[in-house]
Amino acid sequence: MISIYVPDLNQAIDFYTNTLGFEVNRRYGPKIASLIHGQIPIILEENDQTTHNQNIKTSRVVLGLQTENIFETVNALKEKDVTFIVEEPTDCPPGKYISFSDPFGNILEYLQFRNTEQAKVQQEI
Questions:
Q1: Of 52, 84, 93, 109, which residue is least crowded by CB atoms under 10 Å?
Q2: What does R_g of the chain's alpha carbons equal in angstroms?
Q3: Is 77 in a helix, a strand, or coil?
């Protein structure tokens, strides 16, 4: 389970559902919601103490999502006016990735594995 603190829960739910394809699993009152994307569950928690610094381009924790076609994913995110950190699909050891931020500065990545066998091995880990 990954928890993400946000200053505005409704805006976060809108971004994670309408932009990234998560589904609301359950609301736990006005300030906490659980969402799911395939096998990835997350908790969004509204927190008034959350800080946001648009100048930060790295993070110790990054939410990574898998895609079958990184180029289609980039185009879909561009249509949603996402703020990119790494906009062009970039080579990395497992395949290609892009990096972007949510409206609150949390960093996310999409990864396309080089082939489906590697993806299957990754899912088994």
A1: 93
A2: 15
A3: helix
